[in-house]
Design brief:
heterodimer, A: 7-stranded mixed sheet, 4-stranded antiparallel sheet, 11 strands, B: mainly beta, 5-stranded antiparallel sheet
Chain lengths: 117, 112
């Protein structure tokens, strides 16, 4: 299993500013993921972050808006840049770990509840 | 059409009731089916997973998968107030590290 510590747990930010969310895993993992969870919508994958390479962004998400760092196998950051009220959401980091027998399990941090005013 | 559709709820039931949560999906390549539980202000945590079709039981929880109908269910027997949470279905293809696709989640409230 994996324990993921994510901070801050919540923040209220002014529009036009940026917020960096940190995610620490208690073991080395190959892949880390950043999701956005908006009310009434499914978890939406923002990007996949592998150590030593550029993050891979999903359709609708760009690096200028959501720059990601992955300096080592236990840590990642997501920055929400030039924020607007539409960025208000819960942001979650996640990793996959093998459970054996072909399956992988997704583990999540506790989330960052962002409100942009 | 979304790959995964989930009844949005919210669902409110009395304590002790049997709860049925459901998802449908369109991608026949999905092989692993999971249910996550998310308490308020917490990240999702894995509740159960099943591979391919069939049933799996764990205590008061039973997960069912019908691949022919592309339909999965989670049943909660003798529901408790502590079961009040949002339940998300999720699924992925088999083999290695595969992207997990989530449903929108169903908010469940069990009333004492």
């Amino acid at each position: 299993s994996a324990v993921i510590s994510q901070k801050p747990s919540r923040d209220i930010c002014q529009r036009g500013t940026s917020l960096t969310i940190q995610c620490q895993v208690d073991s080395q993992v190959t892949m880390m993921f950043w999701y956005r969870q908006q009310p009434g919508q499914s978890l939406t994958l923002i990007a996949t972050a592998n150590q030593g390479s550029e993050a891979t962004y999903e359709s609708g998400f760009v690096i200028d808006k959501f720059p990601i760092s992955r300096p080592n196998l236990t840590f990642s950051t997501l920055t929400v840049s030039n924020m607007s009220p539409e960025d208000s959401s819960i942001y979650l980091c996640s990793t996959l770990m093998s459970t054996g027998s072909m399956n992988t399990e997704a583990f999540f941090g506790q989330g960052t509840r962002l409100t942009v005013v | 059409q979304k790959e995964v559709e989930q009844d949005p709820g919210p669902l409110s039931v009395p304590e002790g009731a049997i709860v049925s949560l459901n998802c449908t999906y369109s991608n026949s390549a999905f092989q692993y089916f999971m249910w996550y539980r998310q308490y308020s202000r917490k990240g999702p945590e894995l509740l159960m997973y099943t591979y391919s079709s069939g049933n799996k039981e764990d205590g008061r929880f039973t997960a069912q998968v019908d691949k022919s109908s592309k339909y999965i269910s989670l049943f909660i027997r003798d529901s408790q107030p502590s079961d009040s949470a949002t339940y998300l279905c999720a699924m992925s293809r088999s083999g290695g590290y595969q992207k997990v696709t989530f449903g929108t989640g169903t908010k469940l409230q069990v009333i004492p």
